[in-house]
Amino acid sequence: MSRRVVITGIGVRAPGGRGTKEFWDLLSSGRTATRTISYFDASPFRSRVAGECDFDPELEGLSPRQIRRMDRASQFAVVCAREAVEDSGLDLAATDPHRIGVSLGSAVAAATSLEREYLVLSDSGRRWLVDQDYLSPHMFDYLIPSVMPAEVAWTVGAEGPVTMVSDGCTSGLDAVSYASDLIREGTLDVALTGAADTPITPIVVACFDAIKATTTHNDEPEQASRPFDGTRNGFVLAEGAAMFVVEEYEHARRRGAHVYAEITGYATRCNAYHMTGLKRDGREMAEAIRSALDDSRVDPTVVDYVNAHGSGTQQNDRHETAAFKRSLGDHAYRVPVSSIKSMVGHSLGAIGSIEIAACALAIEHGVVPPTANLRTPDPECDLDYVPITAREQRLDTVLSVGSGFGGFQSAMVLRSVGAAA
Amino acid sequence: MSEPVYVTGIGVVAPNGLGVKEFWSSTLEGRSGIAPLTRFDSTGYPARLAGQILDFDAAEHLPNRLLPQTDVSTRLALVAADWALRDAAVNQAAMTDYDMGVITSNASGGFQFTHGEFRKLWSQGPQFVSVYESFAWFYAVNTGQISIRHGMRGPGAVLVAEQAGGLDALGHARRTARRGTALVVSGGVDSSFDPWGWLSHLSSGRVSAVGDRDRAYLPFDTAASGYLPGEGGAILVVERADAVARRRAPQVYGEIAGYAATFDPPEGSDRPPGLRRAVELALDDARLRPGDVDVVFADASGVPELDRAEADAFREIFGPNGVPVTAPKTLTGRLYSGGGPLDVVAALLSIRDGVVPPTWHTADVPPDHGIDLVLGEPRNRSVSVALVLARGRWGFNAAMVLRAVADGAGSARA
Amino acid sequence: MSVMTLDDLRRILVECAGEDDSTAVAGDIADVPFEDLGYDSLALMETAARIEQRFGVRLPDDEVLDLATPGAVLDAVNKAAAGV
């Protein structure tokens, strides 16, 4: 009998609210949390909107030492890990540390700290030969950011495998898949897994400006993220994190844990096409979806909801629509599809985990979160994207997908425990 | 019972050799790739020795098109992948695209490239930042570029765990092969020797400041004073045994027979460190006992207390002087994501040639370490099972067991 | 009077996106589609950014990718420079 993997705890920091409850309130009400960038003067930039989190590390219970030492993304990860453990009711002291692991996703990791230290070391960009007198003792951990999962491991006392998964914008999905692999194969009973990214810093804003991947709807910051809408013109950069306690099913059952959902299947494929471009046919994403459904041993027609990557770029939303049709057949026209990036923006490596949280909560509450800001139909995007308003519906099988630079295409299937049994 | 997973191709980009042949002869003959940094004027820096790849001209090996969009680390990774696939005689066109995956480790991304873009942003303005920055920097870049170059559409992944990450990538490649992907290109390559990258290395407090290149990185020696950073690494072709037999691969270097990763308890904890457990789990995974191991390729930090901890683990597992231990990385420095894979290459070549390279430069090993460190010259010894260890800063431990494959599973191994 | 010549553009293209040994970026490429020259949308975006910095001529984002040949880029740049 193969080992099953379930989600028993969730911690989220996303734009528009602190914690899982506020996150779900935002999604289910269809409100948006994107705004004009406030962290720095964004006026020289092409895209000036973002999904910012009102995150106060002190209020979140981090010590002054932790705050000094840790990059913002690490802070998010640790805070969410604590929340997830509390939510799960897991007694860490009674759990063998050797059987707990960490798999943390992040795309650009310590970008915020790198940029801060760069400005100090280079005299605001004036020096190429950086000045050692201003060197931070933590600089090494911004260069090589594997301290991020280490911080999570220390938070929960994990001594099993600990790693960072950095597959760009599919990191958040793939990190959870990685943890699930370790539980399935018997290496772990419990994993703290999820993802964090805090990329709202000039260098990251500039690099997406250069490639014109981010939106120019600067005058309507709350309506700037428009997945599947005819007037979409790019994604809205965001920050955030989501962490989960995932467990082997029997381990969770024995301790009477509440189970949000079972992770029944996942897969990732590369498109081997272009570092940033997508072919119109969605072939490799479709293959990832098919493979994840196979892994779950379910037919495409049982999928009750698709949580789309839905970044709001012209090419992504077309590509993805094609992938759904290719993998789900006619069922693609019947199944509700939505993008929560319309509300919380695109937090790069973190969003895949934030979307898994949305899926788990959607199953829990029987509600499909909507695609906000979807008012102008696009003839090329002709599926049911659940515009504007959430929809109450029993959900047993949910598909979440991700797509990212480098050609990564990932998919995960989550099921209610009743359905998967 | 899981299908065995083999290494069938190797590509090496190391400070002491481009290509397997050059790397291996340098390793056996003691040719070092350590030298004072030449990428920039390093005169004012407190430490200046590093393992640099000085004879690499990317334009000789890669299409000109790829150069404007790649960091030096990605160019090295692409070339290593090319060589590994050629070595394994893989005909990508004859394989199903989804049956080939790419799983690499990375530690510092395209750092020199991104330093240049940070500089443009802050000295000239946002509109000067390159379109390529959005992917030349991030940790996922090497997997993406290798997959594109070779039309590999199977699973892709990137793991970051400082120096331990390279073994994690190979371990995940084996897992992925067992889950159904016939062939996975895997390993790690890093480079971050621009002024900012170099200073970041120094901030670890563990880089040796000794100026004599033969005395600066002396793991397990009484004069150990830290390590030297290096650049490069290795990319390997990892294949499921049935696929190897089906396509009649020209050689099998060995089986990835065991793998495990652990994490140390937090500082100040009274719980034991995780290295010994990683070794024991990897041996269990391979269904082997400590006595079956013919040689250990040590992590060999060069930081005295970490050397001691590693020596302690060896004594506990194998008994005093119970197994030959070596660390050829004294000739290259520590390569971060590339370190584990390059040691795996050395281990596989030890299996092939029946010879264990020494830990060059280290000479004076305290007797109470109780380890049989191979010193001074290569040791001829038949190797059937080799153990490779890698530790990453903050507590990452990874262990991999490589085993000789007797008949090469239908291969034409001489 | 042109502010930018085909040779200028050629240099920028090669700097921004390299060249194949097989494709002749040399010679009269004014009417050869970028696709045939092997330059993708990224190459064109990078090229447009460098043109703006060196020649002070800004090509609107949504027009850049519609410029299918080097000749069309030269035309657009020189018209914009002349204030047409």
TrEMBL record, chain A:
Keywords: Acyltransferase, Transferase. One of its GO terms (molecular function) is 3-oxoacyl-[acyl-carrier-protein] synthase activity. InterPro entries: Beta-ketoacyl_synthase, Ketoacyl_synth_AS, Ketoacyl_synth_C, Ketoacyl_synth_N, PKS_Beta-ketoAc_synthase_dom, Thiolase-like. Residues 2-416 form the Ketosynthase family 3 (KS3) domain. Belongs to the thiolase-like superfamily. Beta-ketoacyl-ACP synthases family. One of its GO terms (biological process) is fatty acid elongation. This is Act minimal PKS ketosynthase (KS/KS alpha). CDD domains: KAS_I_II. GO terms for cellular component: cytosol. SUPFAM superfamilies: Thiolase-like (SSF53901). SMART domains: PKS_KS.
From TrEMBL, chain B:
InterPro entries: Beta-ketoacyl_synthase, Ketoacyl_synth_C, Ketoacyl_synth_N, PKS_Beta-ketoAc_synthase_dom, Thiolase-like. This is Act minimal PKS chain-length factor (CLF/KS beta). PANTHER family: POLYKETIDE BETA-KETOACYL SYNTHASE 2-RELATED, POLYKETIDE SYNTHASE-RELATED. One of its GO terms (biological process) is fatty acid biosynthetic process. It comes from the Bacteria. Residues 2-404 form the Ketosynthase family 3 (KS3) domain. Belongs to the thiolase-like superfamily. Beta-ketoacyl-ACP synthases family. It holds the Pfam family ketoacyl-synt. GO terms for molecular function: 3-oxoacyl-[acyl-carrier-protein] synthase activity. Keywords: Acyltransferase, Transferase.
UniProtKB/TrEMBL annotation, chain C:
InterPro entries: ACP-like_sf (IPR036736), PKS_PP-bd (IPR020806), PP-bd_ACP (IPR009081), Ppantetheine_attach_site (IPR006162). This is Act minimal PKS acyl carrier protein. Residues 3-81 form the Carrier domain. Pfam families: PP-binding. GO terms for molecular function: phosphopantetheine binding. Keywords: Phosphopantetheine, Phosphoprotein.
